[in-house]
Amino acid sequence: MRDGHIHTPFCPHGSNDSLEQYIERAIELGYTDISFTEHAPLPSTFIDPTPEQDSAMAMEQLDSYLSTLQRVKKQYQADITIRIGLEIDFIVGYEEATARFLEQIGPELDDSILSVHFLPANGQYFCLDYSPKMFQAMVESFGSTIRAYEAYYEAVLYAVQTDLGKYKPKRIGHLTLVHKFQKQFPCPVSMTERIMHILDEINGRQYELDYNGAGVQKPLCQEPYPPDWVVYEALKRNIPLIYGSDAHCARDLHQGREQMIRNFL
Q1: Which CATH number characterizes residue 63's domain?
Q2: For residue 139, what are the domain limits?
Q3: I need a labelling partner for 234 at 20 to 30 A (CA). Which of 153, 195, 196, 253 fits?
Q4: For the segment 224-262, what is each residue's pLDDT rounded down to a tens digit?
């Protein structure tokens, strides 16, 4: 029972639930191993495109985040394994800044995830999972839904292939996140070939996949990231899948997991 993707009260778009609430809820659910993977501070020259600019933890909070996790890791060591981690954004155009940050912070971490949330289009960045309204603006900037989906998978492939140094995360976050609003913005062409290529690249590098349950609860998605067929393809390649609730509040722990398990029974 492991959850490898949990957020914290340090998340500016999350909840105020304490770390203790998350931990005690995880223990109650039967988890023996959890990773806190807060959104890492964004590069200093990157402008967060969300209205409240609340996509990630501030750099000024990082030391407090690490020291607080060290405290609870020790406090609960007899009850549960707690891994100190970060969810690192891979942003096209900010590869060097990301590599420098990882070089500095890597030794402090037990776990990490590499995710794509932001895409550049026509001179501006969009947060692809922020809202249907921003997704629509992104589609309009790209010129089509197809091109937006293609750009996302190109960015994920580039994230997998890019050398970010020895502390580069080995787990790729919510591989199919671009499908979060698929009920409203369906892609009229298959992305299967692109996804299979990414899986082959992940396999060749001995990386892992975040098997993310959050999409199950999203009304315009209604499936995990990635969906079942991708999971089967990953298993064929012996790619490790680490369940992640992507919880932003304590009650979201375990989200999607029962349905994901049922699909494979």
Answers
A1: 3.20.20.140
A2: 2-259
A3: 253
A4: 999 999 999 999 999 999 999 999 999 999 988 887 777
